[in-house]
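Aim 2 progress update. The chain analyzed this quarter is reproduced below.
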Amino acid sequence: MYFNDVFIGYYVLIVFVGFLVGKIVAWCNVRMPEKKTIFSKDFFEENKKGLKLNYFFMISTAIIYALLLYKYGINREDFFANLELIKFLILVPMLLLVFFIDVKHRIIPNRLNLTIFEIGLVITFIYGISYVNKARDYILGMLLGAGIFLAITVLGKIISGKESMGFGDVKFMGAVGLFYGINGILDISLGAFFFGAIASIFILIYRFVIIKSKDEYISFGPFLSTTALACMFLGSGTILNVFMDFCRLISYHL
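Predicted structure tokens:
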């Protein structure tokens, strides 16, 4: 039996791998914020006791992995044709970590950003062997991602007198740019700001009205990571094109 020209056995394998990766993600979600070693004998000892959200991470990762396999398929004749699938399979667990760590601890760990950056460089180098233009696009995506958010951070600091966005977001977007390129970074930026603006309204209403909290801080990493996950399944430049069409529509009616 085949799904999107991929034998069902590959789906079984990828789901199994997703469960294992999800188990490690749950462990990293506990250890990284505490700045503790990830791979140690504690992993096996602590897993006997069970970790909070283990099954959530395992199931989420397995489902996303299966969807990625369905989206990109497998090319058994050309290794380079599988790089899109491979790079996103590697990136998914790190995006999940960015989401949950930033929500809970309001920080994107430097070593997580560094890991994304290092893997991105390796993948960009591999692309450069056969697809020089694509590798160049990823390098430019890195520069553009870091540049956009650095500019927002600096301008926000000048205008408001306080930090409007953390440097962890700047580092994250620079690292992620190596996976998505120029159009992908623009997609993530536009999508995250749109999604973040809408979600922030509801979050602030909940804090100010429901629980009577005066906390105005909203982590932006979850919006960036969620949009980055969504862009894995959208064509490059999809959100950008929708935004441009919307602007043209508005200008036409003005």
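The chain has a mean pLDDT of 85. The longest strand covers residues 2-3. These observations will guide the mutagenesis experiments scheduled for the next reporting period.
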